Amino acid sequence: MGQYKKLWYLLMAVLAVTFAILGYFGNEVYKQAPPIPEQYVTTDGKVVLTREDILQGQSAWQSTGGMQLGSIWGHGAYQAPDWTADWLHREAEAWLDISAQQQFGQPFAALDDTQQTVLKAQLAKEYRGNQQNEQETVVLSNARAAAIAQTGQYYQALYGNDPALKKSRESFAMKDNTLPDATARERLTNFFFWTAWAASTERPGSEATYTNNWPHEPLVNNHPTTENIMWSVASVVFLIAGIGFLVWGWAFLRKEDEAEAKAPQQDPISQLALTSSQKGLAKYAFLVVALFVAQVFLGGFTAHYTVEGQQFYGFDVSQYFPYALVRTWHIQTALFWIATAFLAAGLFLAPIINGGKDPKGQKLGVDLLFWALVIVVVGSFTGNYFALAHQLPAHLNFWFGHQGYEFIDLGRFWQILKWVGILFWLGLMLRGTVGAFKQPGDKNLLALFVASVMAVGLFYGSGLFYGERTNLSVMEYWRWWVVHLWVEGFFEVFATAALAFIFVSLGLVSKRLGTAAALASASLFMVGGVPGTFHHLYFSGTTTPIMAVGASFSALEVVPLIVLGYEAWEHWRLQYRTDWMQKLKWPLYCFVAVAFWNMLGAGVFGFMINPPISLYYIQGLNTTAVHAHAALFGVYGFLAIGFVLLIMRYLRPDALFDDKLMKTGFWALNIGLVLMIVTSLLPIGIFQAHASISQGLWYARSEGFMQQDFLQTLRWVRTIGDVVFIIGAVAIAWQVCRLVFKCQRQ
């Protein structure tokens, strides 16, 4: 540890405290998850549905693509409704009509204001008080049982082939016969009902529902809780305090700037002979850009479904490639190509760390890992296709087809195989790096790098801690361990350590400075990033303490992002340190873009939706897509591209980047991403937010609202940004392919 002892102690303390918080309140998630009652019965004892009906409905929902077609509790796709909010509103309206006929002999709309007010009060009292009793049974009024049956008929028709709902299916980008089996459709409605029951029933001993009064639904008195507003204010206070302490710490605690390391006359990495395992990474680069191009075209395809629903410029393709499928492929392809680039970066660095040598058999391992990645991609995508075409037996869907959970859509078998591949990569990395500990000199940066590699390898396995029938709240806890903690946490630390190693190896940054910066950055990322996982769970069947922890620490996630402008400037000016750095100009540009989009996409757009009061109204709206696109591609996408360009620079040392091609690619990607956001996603999200705040989430996601001509025009306008972005992706891919296949000019 030596001179870095304080930084190591700080990092270990941060990890110990934050994971203790994550684990302690994770236990709270398990204990306080909304119950799945043994049965729902009417007042005269007739069974309406059972726990088994709900669990079978959960499996039926997964078989339709789950979160890739509409959303549940706000998590999922944005084109179709949020089924929880939609069911709750439809069922409440049905109850009002049924009760109006029973009590006044007229439809609800025909009643006077006093009569309507009386019925609304009865509705809210009944729905919010429908807790289960000691026998794990919920007793429903006959009016509510009738409302459930009536609402269920609508969804059974919608997910089927009812001609009367053809236009609605087009508006929601649903194919006809989304769920062909009538029994499965009936089960699906049971699951939708349960999610709405949890969102409208008060948790025992509380005045808030199991989902903290989410979604906004005035008919059942779902409004923000007092705690929601208090912790929202607190999150802003924590953000300002965090920024203030960071500025003071930067000003008073940092040592005087170390004199810049003298740049070597020649590129040190280029002086090392390429090992056989490094030479084998060209195919990884090709796989990365191939998947990247596929992903952006799938993205354009998916976005077009939001305007034509079942068609692609007049061609009805939804029966073969429905929205849920292409959106699944779009997201999964992004995760695959970004992860592949990160794995390649690690494998490229390992021999450099090991003194320019490969362990025995390393090249074979690199080749085997590549083909394992190809098998997982092809296998999981094939499973997705047959699952959503309902050509896979229902009992095999979760394992080999589609899990139904956004970002972890691939079947469980393919998920396990993917983790095995990551563990295999971890083994290759350890074989190639642990030997370096025997070499003389400072090993602190190496220790951080190896620790981050181990975390990346091991923590993906957290996605295996839930099953097909796991309670939705518990599943969400573990899903966000992968989507937030693994991706946004440990990959961030891995990237930080990897970049530090690269710049130290190039002789442009001293090892002392690079090590100190990497250790400090790791602590800053983890202090907010680990418990900040809970900001995804405010309304997923959790209690107020979860909201408090998530709101407090997610605000701190933004704090380190404010200094990224300085990091960007540092990366930018490296190209001018020495003549040979000009050959690395474009990877450096990508790293500059990472810093910019980290600040804007993860920082500004992330905090825009993070405070509980904000997320209460806009969870599941296009504002979330703004953050997702800007952060996932802007940060991890550009970082992955930068890694690939860096690798290819050394695999083809005599080749030069084509400046015209690279300018086109780099700027088209940035401009295209900006256009997507400012001309379409953000304006639509803002209009939806107004609708959600004024009337309810159901309305902001409804067919009547989303199909307005103005919003349709905004979705068409997005095509401009999509096309610009696709041009950039193709240009970058063409540059990489020219290097891979040695077509680049010397």
TrEMBL record:
One of its GO terms (biological process) is aerobic respiration. GO terms for cellular component: membrane. The chain crosses the membrane at residues 7-26, 229-253, 284-307, 334-356, 368-388, 416-434, 446-466, 486-509, 516-534, 546-566, 586-609, 629-647, 667-689, 723-741. Gene3D superfamilies: Cytochrome c oxidase-like, subunit I domain. GO terms for molecular function: cytochrome-c oxidase activity; heme binding. Keywords: Membrane, Transmembrane, Transmembrane helix. InterPro entries: Cyt_c_oxase-like_su1_sf (IPR036927), Cyt_C_Oxase_1 (IPR000883), NorB_cytochrome_c-like (IPR054309). The keyword Transmembrane helix applies. The keyword Oxidoreductase does not apply. It comes from the Bacteria. Residues 37-216 form the Nitric oxide reductase subunit B cytochrome c-like domain. SUPFAM superfamilies: Cytochrome c oxidase subunit I-like. This is Nitric-oxide reductase large subunit. It comes from Paralysiella testudinis. The lineage of its organism: Bacteria, Pseudomonadati, Pseudomonadota, Betaproteobacteria, Neisseriales.
